[in-house]
Amino acid sequence: xxxxxxxxxDALMVALAAKDLTAxxxxxxxxxxxxxxxxxRILGESEGAEDVVQDAFISAWRGAAGYRRERGNxxxxxxxxxxxxxxxxxxxxxxxRPAPLEVAEQRxxxxxxxxxxxxxxxxxxxxxxxxxxPEAQRRTIELAYFGGYTHVELAELMGVPLGTxxxxxxxxxxxxxxxxxGTRA
Length: 185
Fold this sequence. Notes:
Blueprint: H1 9-17, H2 21-43, H3 46-63, H4 74-93, H5 101-106, H6 113-131, H7 135-145, H8 151-158, H9 162-184
Helix pairs in contact: 1-2, 2-3, 2-4, 3-4, 6-9, 7-9, 8-9
């Protein structure tokens, strides 16, 4: 089916509210990867992100009748469900549970402090290398890696030729590689 023949998101929401499974499948095909990318970016783990996306689409199925166009578009509505579910999962994982001091002293550390510190430095170095890129290259890389967009989708989204997207990606990643190699020397 060509993009022109696909039903508009609003029509899909009406069908979803009427419990049309085809509408749910179409919304999933359209936004499933983006929803997963958002959940993964928040949670930092694949299994949790998959669970959040599944839960979000079930919630969309159940709550489609309550969707109101004047409050936002279907894509934003769906991604806000994913965002809220991801944050809920993250909060449950990081909830503080105090333990008696004696128990904490006897328990070995879950993680090597030196390894954790090294990983934090590496993450900061990658962030700085990404921020040092020109805006077009940085945005292209962020949308591809954190937004889950393909090269073709990026070209359409950014309104540039496919070759430009590929070039920005290649050159930006080369610059990052050089910057990161320079910090390890």
